[in-house]
Amino acid sequence: METVLHEQRGAIALLTLNRPEKLNALNYEINDRLMALLDELEGQARCHAIVLTGAGDRAFSAGGDIHQFAASIRNGADEAVRDFCRRGQSMTARLENFPKPIIVAVNGIAFGGGCEITEAAHLAVASDRAVFSKPEIAIGIPPTFGGTQRLSRLAGRKRALELLLTGDRFSAERAYELGLVNKVVPHDQLLHEAFALAERILRHSPLTAARIISAVTRGLNTTIDEGLLIEREQFARMCATGDVHEGLTAWIERRKPRYSGR
Predict the structure, then answer these.
(1) What is the pLDDT of residue 1?
(2) pLDDT at residue 49, rounded to an integer
C-alpha cells in the first residue's frame, strides 16, 4: 500500500497521507514518499498547486510514529537526529520552500508532526472537526520538525509557549485565531474549499506565485532591508519573463491574461 497517494486533478495534485489505521502517523516511509512526490511534482509542468490531506475521517496526522522513532532514540542521539529529526525538518522545510502553492486540508487530528506540516505549508484550510496539539512535551522531547520555530513566528512567543509547554489540545477555531489556518469550513466542504482556494491562485501566473512564495519565505527570517532586497531580486527575475508582459498587456487591453509559465 502506498503511504502517500497521488491523484492529479487538472493543474492541482492531491496528495493524501495514507495510514488511516495509524491515524496517518508519520513514519519514515511516509516522509520519504512525500519528499519523492514533491521532487516529481516540482518538475511537472502540468502541476501548478498541491492540496495535501489525510486518509480517513479521523486524522490528518497524529504526528511522528512513536514506536519507530523510539527505536532510533534507543540507538543513541546520532541515529535519532539523523533518521528522525533531520528527516522531519527536511520535509517541513521542503514544504515551506516549495515553489508551487501547497494547501493543507486538515481533516481531523493534527498533532505533533501533523501540526508542524500545517505550520510549514503555505496555506491551510481546516475542517470544523479538526483538533490540534503540540504534545511532544508529554513524551519528554521538544518538537522536532520545526515546531519550536514556526509556531512562535505564526502565533507569537507567549501563545506558542503556552501550547508547547502544556501540550493542550486546541480547536480549529483557535488555530484560525493563532494564524495556523486560513479558514475553518464544514467537514464535508473541506476538499472543495481547498481546491477552490487553489483555483483562485491558479488564475494568475505560476511564475509570479513562485516568486512571491520565495520572497515571503526567505524574507521572514531577515531584516526588513534584506527582505526588500529579496523582493527586488524576485521582481527583477519576473521582468525577463513572458508572463509579466502578458499580464500587463492583458490589463491594458481589458482581457483575461493567457499565461504560458515562461
Answers:
(1) 81
(2) 98
Domain ranges in the chain are 4-202, 206-252
- The gap from C-alpha 144 to its chain's centroid, in whole angstroms, comes to 16
Single-letter amino acid code for the residue at 32: D
pLDDT band at 3 (very low <50, low <70, confident <90, very high): very high
| Confidence grade of residue 261 (pLDDT, cut at 50, 70, 90) | confident
> What's the pLDDT tens digit per position in 205-221?
999 999 999 999 999 98
Which amino acid belongs to residue 109?
Answer: I
The Cα 114–Cα 127 span in angstroms is 14
The catalytic residues are 116, 136
pTM of the model: 0.95
Beta carbons within 8 Å of 117's beta carbon, 6+ residues apart: 52, 60, 61, 91, 92, 95, 104, 110, 145
Task: Evaluate whether the domain defined by 4-202 bears CATH number 3.20.20.150.
Answer: no
Residue 151, pLDDT score:
97
